[in-house]
Each structure stands twice: as C-alpha cells, then as structure tokens.
Predict the 3D structure of the following.
Amino acid sequence: MDPLALAPNQPADRAYRGGAGILALRGIGSTDDHVPEDFIASTTSVHGTDGIGLTVLDDGMTLKDAISLDPIGYLGLDHVNRYGADTGLLVKILSTGERLFNHVHPDAAFAAAHLGSPRGKTEAWLITDTGAGSGTVWLGFRDEVDLATLRRLVVDQDTSALLGALNELTVTAGDWVFVPAGTPHAIGDGITLVELQEPSDLSILLEYRGFPGIDPAGAFLGLDLDTALGAVDFQPLVGPMLAAVHGHAEEGNRVRLLPTGTDAFFRAELVAPAEPVILEPSFAVLIALDGVGELAWEGGSRALGRGDVILVPYDAGSTVISGSVRAIRCLPPV
C-alpha cells in the first residue's frame, strides 16, 4: 500500500476566523475567512454533523470506510489488537485570524458520561508560524479559581476576566504545547500550528459572546451550565507543571516533540535529515514545513516539499526521508 497525498479538507463556516496560514503553508486551500482548520487523515466528523470533516480519498471513499475494509493494512496488527479499526488520532493544521475563544475539551470519562462519546479531546500544538514576531497562547489557571467564580464569569461573559485567569505564554515557531483535557485555553491571532488530538470534536466554550452563530446551548454542547463546567480542571497550572507542558524542539535528524507521558494519546517528531532517516512501519501523517526532499518506500518514491501532506499506511513498510526537507511526523497512541 503506497503513501497517499492528501488535499486540504477545511470545513466551512467555523465559529472563528482563520485559514490564511493553511493557504500560506500548503499553497492550496480555501480563501474563505472562516476555514481555520484543515482536518488531516480524518475519521472524525465535525460535532453535530454526519460526515463533515471526514477525509475523502481520490476514489471517493472516506478514509474511515477504507480503514474499516483493511484495518491491518492501514494501522498494523498491534494497533488493531489494541484499538480496533480506530486510528486513535486526528491531525489538523490550524490557522487563527483572530484570538480563539477561551474553552475546554472534556476528557474521555466526561464525554462518555454526558456526551455519548468514547473519546475526550486531549491535544497538543506544534507551532509552525507566528508571523513577523512571537505569538500568544493562554493555558490553564494561573491561580485558584472556584466553581462559583467561574460560573459567574461565564454567565456574565466577562471575557477579560476569563482570559486573565489563565497563564499567558509566548510562543514561536518550533515550540510545542501539550493541552490535557479539561484545561482552559485560547490561541492568539496570527498563529499557525499542527494540532494532534484525540479523534473527537468536543469543545465547551467558556467564552462565546462576539463569535457569530454561537449561543449558550451550542457553547455547552447541549448541556446545562453546571454540568458543562464539570469538564473543567480547576487545578492551577503553575511552576513545574506549567514547564512540563511547553517546550521547544531540539535540533537533529529525528527529534521527539512531546513528553513521553503523551504517548497514550499521540506522538510526534520532527524529521530534518542531514543524512537519510529510516522510519519504522507505522500509520503516520507527514506534514512538510520547508525544504525539498524525497520520501521513499519499498514500492516507490515521491518528492516531498513544503506544504505536502502525506498519509503513510502501515503496509507501506519502512520509509526513508532524505534531502533538505523538514517534516513533522504525527503518530497514533501506543
């Protein structure tokens, strides 16, 4: 089974502006201003829809259906024995055209108990571009916040206080940020990033005023406010805990990008081959950031350059990346 080049897959009319960074990276894509997410190798539908967001292959079949017909070929026997015909991974390129709303994602236990979903949404951001300078993201409470206070801020839509309650972090290209489920967060304007996440589209918005088409019912996924706030992790994210979820990529031919504790959710590495890098068989997503190189496998090879997005099935076997290209390799949980 050969690797597959994937075209942009940008659901329309998302709740916030963005998408220019996707077009700048990939060289192709939508020019609309509310398409901030490119769903890559997606077997996940946009919440509340029947199929929007699913990756469709060149033959017209969804990737989800193709994997169901040949799970071992796409995912490998070990993965199928552990997770079934579920990739366990959703990758996106995300590009903000305004500050993203303050929100949280539920964990798997909350999603199962209240939303009928087996998956929560722990995620990670691999920052690829912040424009001419640095960018800003917000992550986790910086001080103690009790339920009554958070409830009041959400009811009042006191967006300044909601954002001010979070840690403000400066990010640049090459940074990574790990966002455990339940952690309040927001992403500033002008940032492009690769996002790895559990394969769900569940967001509880603490902030929704000023974002067209969002009302409290939609913001809370149809839950009442008190139930929805049960998804929030109130533990302040400070000191060593904060340091553990934000870092910067090291230099090297093949560099791990996230802490080992994230392997139960997803894995990521940066491949920048000063000499050819041999990669073990795995379901993987490659996103080429810059440079020009080659991806080779037992059955063939193809050029690999800035903006290329490649789905590598397990049955492609060992692959080799060579040349001056730099690429992010996204991998499922183990």
About this structure: The chain has two domains: 7-41+87-248, 254-331. Residues 62 and 198 are 19 Å apart (CA to CA). The chain has a mean pLDDT of 97. The domain at 7-41+87-248 is CATH 2.60.120.10 (Jelly Rolls).
